[in-house]
Recover the amino acids of this structure.
């Protein structure tokens, strides 16, 4: 997620679905979700490891299946979509010299890859909150600021790739998480060309972007070319001053903080709003409002459930 200025074909999506905006729906969601471990995830070691005291979790341990979000004051929360609860995991205290978090991705061992405003990426254990610096160096000409997200290489694979989306609109790139080598993938296409986005990926090998248009849009992105495969507008959704994006159980969750009207209460007293886009029925629903904290980054591992079990 890039804060402070700056489907597609999910299998269940009905292309002609009509969006329905509802300000209700904050109650508990009793639906059951499919466990990725039951749909063919392998046992290969994924991204992560134990070096540097990062205390990774076992691959696809229960907590790695939930989205996590980070706030402007460096607090990490675990978000559980089935009952819409946020659990405070603590304050991240990486020695960044005052640089603040601006985007986040999470790998299959529960390691958060957190981009900061000084262009660095830190690895943070979602279990212990221990920090480890990385050797990431952005290209000189672009990708100084970016959204980020992991996606499985193929459907059901335990191998995953970290993708970046340039905030200034240069397009899509990918990073080798061992060597930190960057490779440009391609520019976005169509009406979303030259636009920036936040990213989220899935365990079935898909990659999606939340584009900060007006209204905002969610689009499936080709991981091989950067082409926009399909896009859907989110009526009534604006990125505002701070935004983030994650996937869970066939649904997409957008976290936005819209600045107050002139003369209104300060933004800090309201915090972010959580909006769910459900491709299976086309609905766009505010599920949490006025959280009391402002979310500036979100991540979910490719261990998250990919479909809803009816």
């Amino acid at each position: 997620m890039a804060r402070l200025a700056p489907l597609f074909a999910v299998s269940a999506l009905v292309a002609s679905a009509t969006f329905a905006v509802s300000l209700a729906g904050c109650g508990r969601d009793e639906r059951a979700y499919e466990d990725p471990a039951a749909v063919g995830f392998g046992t290969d070691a994924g991204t992560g490891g134990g070096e540097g005291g990062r205390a990774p979790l076992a691959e696809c341990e229960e907590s790695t299946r939930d989205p996590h979000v980070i706030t402007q004051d460096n607090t990490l929360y675990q978000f559980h979509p089935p009952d819409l609860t946020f659990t405070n995991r603590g304050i991240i205290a990486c020695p960044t010299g005052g640089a603040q978090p601006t985007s986040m991705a999470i790998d299959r061992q529960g390691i958060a890859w957190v981009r900061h405003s000084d262009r660095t990426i830190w690895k943070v254990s979602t279990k212990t909150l221990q920090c480890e610096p990385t050797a990431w160096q952005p290209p000189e000409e672009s990708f100084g600021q970016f959204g980020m997200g992991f996606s499985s290489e193929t459907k059901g694979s335990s191998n995953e790739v970290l993708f970046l989306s340039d905030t200034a609109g240069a397009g899509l790139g990918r990073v080798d998480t061992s060597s930190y080598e960057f490779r440009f993938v391609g520019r976005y296409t169509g009406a979303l060309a030259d636009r920036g986005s936040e990213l989220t990926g899935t365990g079935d090998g898909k990659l999606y972007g939340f584009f900060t248009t007006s209204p905002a849009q969610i689009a499936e992105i080709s991981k091989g070319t950067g082409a926009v495969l399909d896009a859907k507008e989110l009526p009534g959704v604006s990125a505002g001053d701070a935004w983030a994006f994650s996937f869970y159980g066939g649904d997409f969750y957008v976290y936005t903080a819209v600045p107050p009207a002139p003369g209104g209460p300060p933004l800090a007293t309201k915090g972010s709003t959580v909006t769910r886009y459900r491709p299976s029925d086309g609905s766009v629903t505010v599920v949490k409002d006025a959280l009391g904290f402002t979310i500036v980054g979100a991540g979910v591992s490719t261990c998250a459930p990919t479909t809803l079990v009816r």
Remarks:
- The chain has one domain: 21-91+98-309.
- Residues 21-91+98-309 form a domain with the Neuraminidase fold (CATH 2.120.10).
